Amino acid sequence: MLVTQARTFSDFPLHPMTQSAIAGMGITEPTPIQAQAIPIMLDGRDVIGQARTGSGKTLAFALPIVERCDPKVRGVQAMVLVPTRELAIQVGEVMGVLAASRRLQVTLLYGGRAYGPERAALSRGAQIVVGTPGRTLDHLKQGTLLLGNLRVFILDEGDEMLDKGFAPDVESILAKTPASRQTALFSATVADWVMGMAKRHLRNPQMVRVDNELESPAEIRHVVYNVQADAKLGALCTLLNDRGEGPVLVFGRTKHGVKKLAARLGEMGYPVSALQGNLSQNARERVMADFRSGAAPILVATNVAARGLDVSGIERVINFDLPDTAQLFTHRVGRTGRMGQEGEAITFVTPEESAKWRQIERELGRSLPRKTWPGTLAAAQGAVRTPPTAAREQPRQPQPPQPRGLFARTALRARPGLQRPASRMQGSVSPLVAGRARKDTR
User: Fold this and answer.
1) 308 contacts 84 by C-beta, under 8 angstroms
2) What residues contact residue 17 under an 8 Å CB cut-off, 6+ apart?
3) Cα–Cα distance for residue pair 110/115, rounded to 1 Å
4) pLDDT in tens, 405-441
5) Per-residue pLDDT, 74
6) pTM of the model
7) Euclidean distance between CA atoms 115 and 234, whole angstroms
8) 27-68: per-residue pLDDT in tens?
């Protein structure tokens, strides 16, 4: 039976044990993407699902997967392909909670760790695999992963999975799966070219689109500042001095630039850590643990954090460097303002980047509020200007931060603990997350 209007999860035709697992998560009401996509997937049809970050897309495909897998049959019956190892961990935890209720086994395949445990899990007959393209393809080539009995195939963050960086591996993996499989693609952004490529692999897919493709959610307040390149660090310090209790995410463009900026802020006494693709898996997990606990509430990151980073209560995202595309901008700012919470996104635009920013706005289909950082015009005119004091609407000039070294750690840890993330499954938790590492998935 196909449910068309589900107001609660009990309206879905789910196994009693699955219903019990959902109730144990404290979830009762499906989000729009869940209400629309779950019935279609339970009916066995292919789906293209588009919904903004923090809308509960993971649960939208996790529930149908556990319903369609047979716990009595050994071997891989469902696969979720994701762009990064951190997202694999996060999706795996969501899936694991539901799978355990049905006595299904979930295993993760991602780089940065030994092959042995993964091979062992596959040989024991794990029914659900969550993996990154590089490591998944390695197992296929080695013969340790067999997909001949695959029933469900999911592309999470589908726009990136079908982009030129991952597309060859994805194509190779799909070639090893049965033509009879059910296929679904989920993403926060689904451009026309994604639709074209997706239809090559999906059979008469049902489109589920619950919000505007590129707009960021209304819960996010945007401010774009015109700022001279040599004034960006001072502007950033001003914003960090005026931060609240919640974590702050600062995006840079390159690995080297992120490391350099984080080191500079650390020397100035800010409780900061850096996340970028060259870090080992253990180092990434330590960085995220410090960020989530409040030990280092300022995270400077490359686009590796633009996708999949699921930390509750990020109060502000700062685009210190512009992203290359409107899609990346949407994913970056989507780290705040999640699941109905308010957030703020601040973007710096230097004179040299004005053309690039205009292109991003054209792709977004709208213009965002834009101001001149106090002192910018005066500096250009060789004059001295006294900045206003209102930080968020009229930020102060940078002041030296209060000491935040070892003696400040105790105070930081004494803050109320951050709530664990719930947005990707609307009720589940995930202690280890990060984002995107295009070249770091094996």
Assistant:
1) yes
2) 101, 102
3) 9
4) 433 333 333 333 333 334 444 433 333 333 333 334 4
5) 95
6) 0.63
7) 46
8) 888 988 999 999 999 999 999 998 876 678 899 999 999 999
Amino acid in position 236:
L
What residues contact residue 180 under an 8 Å CB cut-off, 6+ apart? Answer: none
β-strand partners of 154: 80, 184
Residue 305: strand, helix, or coil: helix
Cβ(23)–Cβ(36) below 8 Å: no
Q: Reduced to 3 states, what is the DSSP secondary structure of residue 290?
A: helix
Q: Which residue has the tokens 């999860």?
A: 9
Terminal-to-terminal C-alpha distance of the chain: 41
Sorted by where each starts, the structural domains of the chain and their CATH numbers stand as 9-209 (3.40.50.300), 220-414 (3.40.50.300)
Q: Which has the closest alpha carbon to 95: 46, 135, 59, 43?
A: 59
Mean pLDDT of the residues in the chain: 81
Q: For 400, which DSSP code?
A: P
Torsion of CA 243, 244, 245, 249, to 10 degrees: -40
pLDDT at 380: 39
Residue 76 vs residues 69, 84, 371, 427: alpha-carbon distances, Å: 9, 20, 54, 26
